[in-house]
């Protein structure tokens, strides 16, 4: 039986995509071999990667002056690549701290020798808020402004895109990538791991505006040099071929659903229904201020934490998997990525209602 998988990542993938991949696993494109076995230098995979990029551009409505990179190392690898490509050692970079992932990105920028200026720090709220946009003052000498639009662990999401002016805006989109329409022209660099909405773990999709491609330090490793990777079509080394292949299938699936406008409306509706169930109850609670609540990752707590284990065990019996909250936060967390259907959210709400009836 397929379960409703609420994992924060690696996450549930669309069933039609998995079924197609399974059917093609031993004979891909009539080659008599799997895509897992095919050379990344061969014409079939080169065509596959080009088709995935073209589909990404269509789905994202990406402007022509942005390059699309398919890289290994996940978002964490880009924590190192961003400062190395955009700023000399000793230069200033501005950060907005809204959770553990933005804090980790800032820590790595410091390790890369940058002067990190935190222009907003939401740690005092235990990362349950986002800053007032009017409060954001970017240093005049900042090489870039970095933020995390959606914090996977805390379930905090920006209700706006920060106005960075002429300063390049850099964003870690990992857990909200292609979950709704976004005006990517407002960003200098966008990056994120694929293992939420875009495919399996092992792939980072990086978008870089053309004018930012030639700022890398002379000593940046070639594997992290965006210009080098652009010139090599993301194939300086062997790329995560299976992840790129699955990304292409998922992008086709997104187009079949009606694109990001349809997907975004469905995601908003799923999140709204779960928040309404939580807010209508005295038994469950969500800690995030309403304006900053994530559509993708919804943490919630039970009135009596002693019931957490029973809640999780009962959920597992009902086919509701991976609801345990992050170890640093506790409680529960339901991740409602693109592949999570409304039926899964409805099943979770029904279970929560029954659990409250019995234990409330």
Automatic annotation (TrEMBL):
E.C. number(s) listed in UniProt: 2.6.1.52
Pathway entry: Amino-acid biosynthesis; L-serine biosynthesis; L-serine from 3-phospho-D-glycerate: step 2/3; Cofactor biosynthesis; pyridoxine 5'-phosphate biosynthesis; pyridoxine 5'-phosphate from D-erythrose 4-phosphate: step 3/5
Molecular-function GO terms, alphabetical: O-phospho-L-serine:2-oxoglutarate aminotransferase activity; pyridoxal phosphate binding
GO cellular component, one term: cytoplasm
Residues recorded with modification N6-(pyridoxal phosphate)lysine: 196
Binding site for pyridoxal 5'-phosphate: 75-76, 101, 152, 172, 195, 237-238
Binding site for L-glutamate: 41
Cofactor(s) the protein requires to work: pyridoxal 5'-phosphate
InterPro entries xrefs: Aminotrans_V_dom, Aminotrans_V_PyrdxlP_BS, Pser_aminoTfrase, PyrdxlP-dep_Trfase, PyrdxlP-dep_Trfase_major, PyrdxlP-dep_Trfase_small
Keyword match Iron: no
Annotated GO biological process: L-serine biosynthetic process; pyridoxine biosynthetic process
Domain of life: Bacteria
Domain Aminotransferase class V, first and last residues per copy: 4-348
Keyword Amino-acid biosynthesis: yes
Subcellular location: Cytoplasm
Catalysed reaction, written as an equation: 4-(phosphooxy)-L-threonine + 2-oxoglutarate = (R)-3-hydroxy-2-oxo-4-phosphooxybutanoate + L-glutamate; O-phospho-L-serine + 2-oxoglutarate = 3-phosphooxypyruvate + L-glutamate
Manner of cofactor binding, per the entry note: Binds 1 pyridoxal phosphate per subunit.
Assembly and oligomerization: Homodimer.
Protein family per UniProt: Belongs to the class-V pyridoxal-phosphate-dependent aminotransferase family. SerC subfamily.
Entry function: Catalyzes the reversible conversion of 3-phosphohydroxypyruvate to phosphoserine and of 3-hydroxy-2-oxo-4-phosphonooxybutanoate to phosphohydroxythreonine.
Name assigned to this protein: Phosphoserine aminotransferase
Organism: Actinomyces gaoshouyii
Gene that produces this protein: serC
